[in-house]
Amino acid sequence: MNRFATLIDALVFMPSRNGKIRLLADFFSTTPDPDRGWALAALTEALTFNEAKPAAIRQLVAARVDPELFALSYDYVGDLAETVALIWPERHDRANSLPPSLPEVVDTLRAAKRAQVMDLVEGWLDTLDSSGRFALLKLITGSLRVGVSARLAKTALAEWGKVDVGELEECWHGLTPPYLDLFAWLEGRSERPAAGHGAGFRPLMLSHPLEEEDRAGLNPADYSAEWKWDGIRVQLVAKGGERRVYSRTGDDVSGAFPDIVDHMSFDAVLDGELLVARGEGEVASFNDLQQRLNRKAVTAKMLQEFPAWVRLYDILFDGDEDLRGLTFLERRARLERWYGAVQPRRMDLSPLVPFAGWAELEALRENARENSIEGLMLKRRDSAYTAGRPKGPWFKWKRGALTLDTVLMYAQRGHGKRSSYYSDFTFGVWRGDELVPVGKAYFGFTDAELVELDRWVRNRTVRKYGPVREVEPGLVLEVAFDSVHPSNRHKSGLAMRFPRVHRIRWDKPAGEADRLETLQRMVVA
Amino acid sequence: MKVCPEGLYVEPGGFYVDPVRPVERAVITHGHSDHARPGHANVLATSGTLAIMRQRLGEGAGGAQQALEYGEAIRIGDVTVRLAPAGHVLGSAQVVLEYNGSRVVVSGDYKRTFDRTCAPFEPVPCDVFITEATFGLPVFRHPPDLGEVRKLIHSLEIFPERSHVVGVYALGKCQRLITLLRAAGYDRPIYLHGALEPICKLYEGFGIALGELRPATVAVKEELKGALVMAPPGAVADRWARRLTDPVVAMASGWMRVRQRARQRGVELPLVISDHADWDELTQTLEDVGAPEVWVTHGREEALVHHATQRGIRARALALVGFEEEGA
C-alpha cells in the first residue's frame, strides 16, 4: 500500500501530462507484480467491490476523535477523506504491525461482505501512515480522482514498454487485473497477449486540419465529403452481449448514455458522432450536449430533456468481420447496407455531401451556418481505416471562425510552465458604458506575445484577487470563436465555444471594441 | 501581563515581548520579521537573535542591544527574566518571567523536533504558559523530516534534467533543510536565490556547516539543469524562476500537509517540514510544562483552547494580531 500511496500523492500534485506518464512509468518499473497490476486496475477504475459510504467513514472517525476537533479540522481541510487521513490518531504500537499490501487490501475487499467492510477499513487505518490512509479512503469510496484516465495509463504503459499504444489497445480488453501477462509482454518476457477484443476499444482514425497549401496538391475526385458535426466522437462496440460507448480517447462512457446502450442490440463496432436531439431529428446545441457529459449516472429527467443519439459515419466490424482493411467507399457501402438491415433506433447516417470541385465545397462550407456543423470532413475514397493520425487520408476543414474585438478585463496566472505568467485572460465587451465579461481564453498567442501580455498586465493592474488581477480597460483582444450560445451561467447571458486570442490589437483604443449587441446577433438559434 | 495594541506587555518590568510597534523596551524571542520588528529603543535577546536582527534590520535593530544567553538571568524592574531554548531557529528563545513567586513562560514560536541548526526546546514548568498555535489542529502532524528530504532526493533521481526549486523561508527553514539534505547524503552544490545567502553565511559563522553553496542568480542555465535550487516562497512561481528549465516546484512548509493548500500554490512536490510545533507537540508541551493556565497567542487557537479546557486547564485565546506565517 505504501508504494501505491506514494504514487497517488505524486499524481495528485503533478500538473503535467508528461510528468504523470513519467511517474507511472517509474512506478511500473520499480513495483513488483501483482502490486503494480492492482494499482493499474485502481487507476483505470477496473476494480469492483463493496464501496464504503462517506457516512460510515464519519462514524469510524467519530469513535476516535473529539467531535469538535474533527469539525474544526474538516472545516479547515474541506475534503472528508483527507481530513480523516490526517486526523486519524496514530497508534504507538503501529511499528509492530505491518501495513497491508495493495493486493491484500484488494483481495480482502473483493471477498468481503458489505457488513464487514468498515471493520476491515478500521483495522487498516490503524496500521497505515497518513498517505496510506488517504489512498485507502479514496480507493474504498470508489474514485481516486488523480487525473489519470484509462488512456493516460495505457500511454504510460506503452511508453515504458516501448510498444505502440495501438498495439496495447488491441489486446487491452482481453486482460484482467492484476495484468501479469501484460507486464510480462511489456518487459519482453513473453509474446503479446492474445487480442481478446470482445467489447474493447479499437484505436480511432483521426484527421489533420486542411491547410491552404495541402489543398493545392489534392485531387477533389479522390475524396468524399461529410459534414463535421459539433458533438463528441464516439465508438459504439456491441460484441458477444457486451455493449460499450467509448470516447475518442478510449474512456468508457457507457454509464452516461443508457439511452444509446439500450438500442445497441447488434454485433458491430461503429464510429460516429454523439449528439443531443431537439425535436424531430434536429441537433441541439453543444451546450445541451454538455449537460450529458462527464456523468457517471444520469437522471430520467436528463434523458428526457437531452436525448442522445449517434450519427454514424464508419463501420469497423460487422459481426466478427474486421472491415478496417477495406477502402472508405467499401466501408461506406457496408455501413449503409448494415444500417438498412439493422435499422437501429437512436442512430442515423451522416450523409455524404456531393461536390464537383474545391470552389463548390468551399461555398458549401461557408454557407453552412447551423450550430451543429463545424465544417467539413474529407475522406480519401481508397483509404483503409488506420489507427492514429496518418497524414493524407482524412482532413477536417472547419468553417471560418467568428471574431469579435473585446477588451481585456482580468488575467490569471497559468499552470506548470506558465505559472509565472498571467496567461488566462477574461475579456468583455461594452454594454452601455460598462464592460461585461463574455469569455476566457488562454491560447492563440505566441510565447513572445505572452511575455508582452504578462508585462502589460503587471503594469496595468488596478486590483488583485489572489492569483487574479483586474486590469484597466486598455487592451483590445480580437477573439476568434466557433459559435456563441445563450447561457445563464454568464453575466452577459452568452457563452462562446472555443474562444481563443486571434490577434492582439495593441493599436486599437478600448472604446472602439465591440458591443454586446454585436455578439448577441451572432447567436444562431 | 496584559495585551496592548503594541503587543504583550509585562507591566512590573515595563517591557514588551515581541511588540508589533516600536517601543521603549523589548524582549525579542527570535529573528523572524513578524516577531523582531524595527525601531525599539532597547532590545534584549540572545546573541544569535541580535546578530540576525542586525543583519536584517541594520539601524532598525534597536538603539541599545543587550545579549542574554540561554540560562542566564537578568532583573528588569521587579521581574526576573531568563531565556530558554525554543528549538525554532538559530537563537530562538522562550521568555521565562518570574515575579512575586510565580512563573510565566512566553513560548514564542517553537518546535520539539531535532534540528541541527539550533538548541533544542527546553520545557520549563510554569504557572502560566503562553503558547503559539500555528498548527493548532489535529490534522497537522509533521512526518519525520528525513523522510520528506528523501522524497526530494528521489524526485531529483526521477527527473534528472529538471531543476528542483524549493520554496523556503530565508531564516531557519533554508538552513535546516540544507543540513537535512547533507545528513541524507546529498553532497552536490546547492544553489541559492540571492535573498537566502546572507543568513546562510551568518549560520556558518555560528559554526553550522552547510556544504557547498552557490549563487543561483549568476549560475548559467545549463548548470541549473537537475540542480537543487532554493528560493523564498514568493519567488518560486514568479518571474525569478523563469531562468530555470522546466522546474519541479517544491515547497518546504508545515502547510504542505494539506493537499489542497499545496495545490493552490502550484506546488508539485510538497515537503512537510516545519519549524513550528505540530498538534502532538503542542499538546505534549502543555503536559510537560504542567501549567494550570494557558494563553494562546496566534494561529488556530480555538482547537487548542478546546483541547486544554477538556484537560482541566484554564485556557484562553489572546488573538494577538500582526503575526503572519513566516517560518511556518
Automatic annotation (TrEMBL), chain A:
Cited SUPFAM superfamilies: DNA ligase/mRNA capping enzyme, catalytic domain, Nucleic acid-binding proteins
Known catalytic reactions: ATP + (deoxyribonucleotide)n-3'-hydroxyl + 5'-phospho-(deoxyribonucleotide)m = (deoxyribonucleotide)n+m + AMP + diphosphate
Broad enzyme group: ligase
InterPro entries with a match to the protein in the record: ATP-dep_DNA_ligase (IPR050191), ATP_dep_DNA_lig_pp_1105_fam (IPR026333), DNA_ligase_ATP-dep_C (IPR012309), DNA_ligase_ATP-dep_cent (IPR012310), DNA_ligase_ATP-dep_CS (IPR016059), DNA_ligase_N_sf (IPR036599), NA-bd_OB-fold (IPR012340)
Domain of life from the UniProt record: Bacteria
Pfam families: DNA_ligase_A_C (PF04679), DNA_ligase_A_M (PF01068)
Entry GO MF terms: DNA ligase (ATP) activity
Known EC number: 6.5.1.1
ATP-dependent DNA ligase family profile domain ranges (all copies): 312-431
UniProt keyword list: ATP-binding, Cell cycle, Cell division, DNA damage, DNA recombination, DNA repair, DNA replication, Ligase, Magnesium, Metal-binding, Nucleotide-binding
Name of the featured protein: DNA ligase (ATP)
Gene source species: Azospirillum rugosum
Automatic annotation (TrEMBL), chain B:
Chain ranges passing through the membrane: none
Superkingdom, taxonomy of origin: Bacteria
PANTHER family registered for this protein in UniProt: BLL1145 PROTEIN, CLEAVAGE AND POLYADENYLATION SPECIFICITY FACTOR FAMILY MEMBER
Protein name, as recorded: mRNA 3-end processing factor
